[in-house]
Specification:
The chain is mainly beta. The chain is 11% helix and 42% strand. It contains two helices and eight strands, in the order E-E-E-E-H-E-E-H-E-E. Strands 1-3-4-6-5 form a five-stranded mixed beta barrel. A two-stranded antiparallel sheet has the order 7-8. The two termini are 36 Å apart.
Amino acid sequence: MNKVILMGRLTRDPEMRQTPNGVAVCGFSIAVNRRFAKEGQQTADFINCTAWRQQAEFICKYFQKGSMIAVVGQLQSRSWDNQEGKRQYSTEVMVDEVYFTGSKNETHSQGADYGHAAPQPRQDNAFGDIDNMGFQAIDGSEDDLPF
Protein backbone atom coordinates (compact mmCIF):
# COMPACT_ATOMS: atom_id res chain seq x y z
CA MET A 1 0.00 0.00 0.00
CA ASN A 2 1.34 3.43 -0.95
CA LYS A 3 -0.45 6.16 1.04
CA VAL A 4 1.06 9.33 2.48
CA ILE A 5 -0.64 11.76 4.88
CA LEU A 6 1.18 15.01 5.63
CA MET A 7 0.37 18.20 7.49
CA GLY A 8 2.56 21.26 7.44
CA ARG A 9 3.10 24.75 6.05
CA LEU A 10 3.69 25.70 2.44
CA THR A 11 7.28 26.87 2.00
CA ARG A 12 6.44 28.95 -1.09
CA ASP A 13 3.42 29.95 -3.13
CA PRO A 14 2.05 27.06 -5.22
CA GLU A 15 3.11 27.22 -8.88
CA MET A 16 0.40 26.52 -11.46
CA ARG A 17 1.34 25.24 -14.92
CA GLN A 18 -0.53 23.56 -17.73
CA THR A 19 0.47 20.62 -19.84
CA PRO A 20 0.43 21.07 -23.64
CA ASN A 21 -3.02 19.44 -23.53
CA GLY A 22 -4.29 22.09 -21.08
CA VAL A 23 -4.29 19.94 -17.93
CA ALA A 24 -3.62 21.98 -14.77
CA VAL A 25 -0.69 20.89 -12.59
CA CYS A 26 0.49 22.55 -9.38
CA GLY A 27 3.83 22.12 -7.64
CA PHE A 28 4.50 23.11 -4.04
CA SER A 29 6.58 22.18 -1.02
CA ILE A 30 5.45 21.51 2.56
CA ALA A 31 7.59 21.92 5.68
CA VAL A 32 6.58 19.05 7.98
CA ASN A 33 7.84 19.13 11.55
CA ARG A 34 9.36 15.89 12.75
CA ARG A 35 7.56 14.29 15.64
CA PHE A 36 10.66 13.89 17.77
CA ALA A 37 13.50 16.36 17.86
CA LYS A 38 16.44 17.20 20.07
CA GLU A 39 15.49 19.13 23.15
CA GLY A 40 14.85 22.77 22.32
CA GLN A 41 15.16 22.21 18.58
CA GLN A 42 12.46 21.65 16.00
CA THR A 43 13.44 19.78 12.85
CA ALA A 44 11.42 19.84 9.65
CA ASP A 45 11.43 17.86 6.44
CA PHE A 46 10.67 19.66 3.19
CA ILE A 47 8.43 17.53 1.01
CA ASN A 48 7.77 18.27 -2.66
CA CYS A 49 4.18 17.73 -3.79
CA THR A 50 2.35 17.73 -7.11
CA ALA A 51 -1.40 18.07 -7.64
CA TRP A 52 -3.33 17.71 -10.90
CA ARG A 53 -6.55 19.08 -12.39
CA GLN A 54 -9.18 20.31 -9.89
CA GLN A 55 -6.91 19.70 -6.89
CA ALA A 56 -4.21 21.87 -8.52
CA GLU A 57 -6.65 24.70 -9.18
CA PHE A 58 -8.06 24.48 -5.63
CA ILE A 59 -4.62 24.64 -4.01
CA CYS A 60 -3.46 27.59 -6.12
CA LYS A 61 -6.68 29.47 -5.41
CA TYR A 62 -6.87 28.99 -1.62
CA PHE A 63 -3.32 28.46 -0.33
CA GLN A 64 -0.17 30.55 -0.30
CA LYS A 65 3.25 30.55 1.35
CA GLY A 66 2.88 29.93 5.10
CA SER A 67 -0.60 28.37 4.89
CA MET A 68 -1.24 25.24 6.94
CA ILE A 69 -2.29 22.36 4.70
CA ALA A 70 -2.94 18.63 4.98
CA VAL A 71 -2.51 16.39 1.96
CA VAL A 72 -3.21 12.75 1.26
CA GLY A 73 -1.55 11.08 -1.68
CA GLN A 74 0.97 8.59 -2.98
CA LEU A 75 4.75 8.66 -2.84
CA GLN A 76 6.29 8.57 -6.30
CA SER A 77 9.96 8.29 -7.28
CA ARG A 78 11.39 9.02 -10.68
CA SER A 79 14.81 9.34 -12.27
CA TRP A 80 16.28 10.94 -15.38
CA ASP A 81 19.61 11.85 -16.94
CA ASN A 82 20.51 15.56 -16.75
CA GLN A 83 22.28 17.54 -19.50
CA GLU A 84 25.70 16.32 -18.32
CA GLY A 85 24.52 12.70 -18.40
CA LYS A 86 24.36 12.34 -14.59
CA ARG A 87 21.50 10.35 -13.14
CA GLN A 88 19.07 12.54 -11.12
CA TYR A 89 16.43 11.30 -8.67
CA SER A 90 13.28 12.85 -7.29
CA THR A 91 10.71 11.69 -4.76
CA GLU A 92 7.45 13.57 -4.35
CA VAL A 93 3.89 13.17 -3.14
CA MET A 94 1.24 12.95 -5.84
CA VAL A 95 -1.70 14.65 -4.10
CA ASP A 96 -5.14 13.00 -4.16
CA GLU A 97 -6.84 14.98 -1.37
CA VAL A 98 -6.20 18.35 0.28
CA TYR A 99 -7.60 19.88 3.50
CA PHE A 100 -7.53 23.21 5.30
CA THR A 101 -5.89 22.75 8.71
CA GLY A 102 -5.14 26.26 9.96
CA SER A 103 -7.37 28.07 12.43
CA LYS A 104 -10.04 30.47 11.23
CA ASN A 105 -8.02 33.44 12.55
CA GLU A 106 -4.88 32.15 10.88
CA THR A 107 -6.69 31.76 7.58
CA HIS A 108 -8.07 35.30 7.68
CA SER A 109 -4.73 36.78 8.75
CA GLN A 110 -3.14 35.22 5.66
CA GLY A 111 -5.45 37.41 3.56
CA ALA A 112 -7.08 34.52 1.75
CA ASP A 113 -10.13 35.49 -0.28
CA TYR A 114 -12.52 32.58 -0.49
CA GLY A 115 -15.14 34.38 -2.52
CA HIS A 116 -17.86 33.88 0.09
CA ALA A 117 -18.48 34.30 3.79
CA ALA A 118 -17.47 31.43 6.05
CA PRO A 119 -20.48 29.52 7.40
CA GLN A 120 -21.46 30.52 10.91
CA PRO A 121 -21.56 27.74 13.53
CA ARG A 122 -25.07 26.53 14.19
CA GLN A 123 -26.32 27.55 17.61
CA ASP A 124 -29.14 25.05 17.93
CA ASN A 125 -29.89 21.41 17.31
CA ALA A 126 -32.66 18.94 17.95
CA PHE A 127 -32.12 19.46 21.70
CA GLY A 128 -32.42 23.24 21.59
CA ASP A 129 -29.80 25.91 22.11
CA ILE A 130 -26.32 24.35 22.39
CA ASP A 131 -25.09 27.11 24.72
CA ASN A 132 -27.72 26.18 27.32
CA MET A 133 -27.10 22.42 27.34
CA GLY A 134 -24.75 22.48 30.34
CA PHE A 135 -21.47 21.96 28.46
CA GLN A 136 -18.35 23.62 29.88
CA ALA A 137 -15.82 25.40 27.71
CA ILE A 138 -12.23 24.17 28.04
CA ASP A 139 -9.13 26.09 27.08
CA GLY A 140 -7.43 23.10 25.43
CA SER A 141 -4.96 22.18 28.16
CA GLU A 142 -5.00 18.59 29.33
CA ASP A 143 -5.69 19.68 32.94
CA ASP A 144 -9.18 20.81 31.95
CA LEU A 145 -10.26 17.51 30.41
CA PRO A 146 -12.94 15.73 32.43
CA PHE A 147 -11.33 12.29 32.16
